[in-house]
Amino acid sequence: MTTSPDALSAESIGTRLDRLRWSGTHLSILMALGAGWLFDSLEVNLVGSVINPLSEHFQATVEQSSRIFWVWLLGVLFGALAGGVLADRFGRRRLFLVTLLWYSGFTVLTAASPNLEVLYVLRFLTALGVGAEYGIINAAIMEFMPARVRGRSAAAVMNFWSIGAIASGFIAFLLLNTFALASAVSWRYGFALGGILALLVLFFRRRLPESPRWLAAQGRVEEAEAILRRMERRAGVDPDASVPGDAPEAPATTHRSALAELVRRYPGRLLLGCVLDLSEAFGYYGLSALLSIVVLKQVHYTDAEIPFFFILGNVGALIGGIGMTLAFDRLGRRWSVGTFYALAATGIGVLAAATSTGDKGLVLAATMLANAVATGAWTAAYPTFTELFPTHLRAAGIGTSVAVGRIGAAYGALYLPTLAVQIGATASYVLIAAFWSVGAIAMIVWSVSGGVDGARQPLSALSAGARGPAGLSPSAGPLTK
Questions:
Q1: Helix or strand or coil: residue 339?
Q2: Strand, helix or coil for residue 108
Q3: What is the pTM of this model?
């Protein structure tokens, strides 16, 4: 049975979620979402570790190898757009299960690719599922966690990406070294194993409840109430204790209506999400393709050594992400995002200098540093723009931002390696640093224009603004820590 949003009681869903003490339910949700993000990352990063034996097997040129990244990112683009709208329409939990089965199945099929053309198609189809996960995971973590720990929790989930990247390096290292498999089959075993392992996430996801905020926004108040009362009892809170109410949000049912409302009511917030994601995606995927296809060969890393390189590189990423997570809510969104994006641009400059020496050890150390600050940047960015969208538009807002970001990432991954071969790696590094700088500048503009800093703010307060360059009504003024 459903109830009209107008019937939402004074005991607001959002306010009651924010008053909860941390409990086993929160930890279970965090781990389930993190596990999904981990296997998404494992799937993505496995390609960087096995790209050389895969390319050798198919006798691929630099451009053909780059297209493996390109078609993947195009798939993420379309998956993010579709997944965001579907998650806002049909719910977070249902899409969690569908996307998991989708990308796991196509990852396994990728292992049997008979030629590059089929591999391109299967990578695109796999990426549709992974792209859909972006909006669902980021929306869900925001909607379950109390405001006081929302930033740290969201950033903690993002750090599972680095863990997945490290795991992919170990899998590739074992396949290329310990088992001494020929290049014709080593990468195939990697994809097959990655797809099968992803199914383990079903163990975590089958216990995930639907988001009470989403249910309330759809008018399904009784279902939201039942889930919330279970969470309250587990957190030791009296479900019948009265709290102030929040106004319900009306659901958007189509992609066109969702995007139209985002552009009309929250133009600055949508623009911020698009710019931050474009900046980090170009930087992250462009660098990954540049290193995998060009730089590591130039500094004489062997195929067997490359997985170990990425393992240590992602250890640096994990350290940087954890450091940002611990400081995120204390520093606030503006300082965290702006500072780490500027540091990411600087880190690329250090890596460019290290690459010019041709020294393998210096390139590894500089990559660890660049990954540390870059991961701090993007793990801060996702929670920052995710929390600015209202519940009924949140997944669509994330999906649109991610889609715009993947346009830049796709062409960065496609052309940066070719550019490096033609005129040297320095030009590619300069472009990557420039994109990271754009993100830092966007955060400065956001701050100067009175944009919202959502640290510790209730989600209902963040979505209350309506218009203006920052997505606020002219009289609202900025919300601060």
A1: helix
A2: helix
A3: 0.84
Structure tokens belonging to residue 272: 């911020």
Outline where DSSP puts E strands in 398-477: none
CB hemisphere CA count around 33 (13 angstroms): 30
- 423 assigned to some structural domain: yes
- Domain with 413, as residue range(s), is 14-236+254-450
Tracing tokens 């820590």 back to the chain, one arrives at 481
At 352, which amino acid appears? A
DSSP state letters, 441-452: HHHHHHHHTT--
What confidence tens digit (pLDDT) does each residue in 414-450 have? 889 989 989 889 999 999 999 999 999 999 999 999 8
Asked if residue 162 is part of any domain, the answer here is: yes
- Whether 472 shows a pLDDT value over 60: the answer reads no
User: Backbone phi, then psi, for 368, in 5-degree steps?
Assistant: -60, -40
Which pair of tokens denotes residue 292? Answer: 């995998």
Helix axis angle, 116-144 to 360-386, nearest 10°: 50
CB of 134 closer than 8 Å to CB of 161: no
User: Do 107 and 126 contact (CB within 8 A), yes or no?
Assistant: yes
Give the pLDDT of residue 158.
Answer: 94
What are the pLDDT digits (tens) for 96-108? Answer: 888 989 989 999 9
Helix extents (H) in 111-175: 116-144, 150-158, 160-173
What CATH number should be reported for the domain holding residue 416?
1.20.1250.20
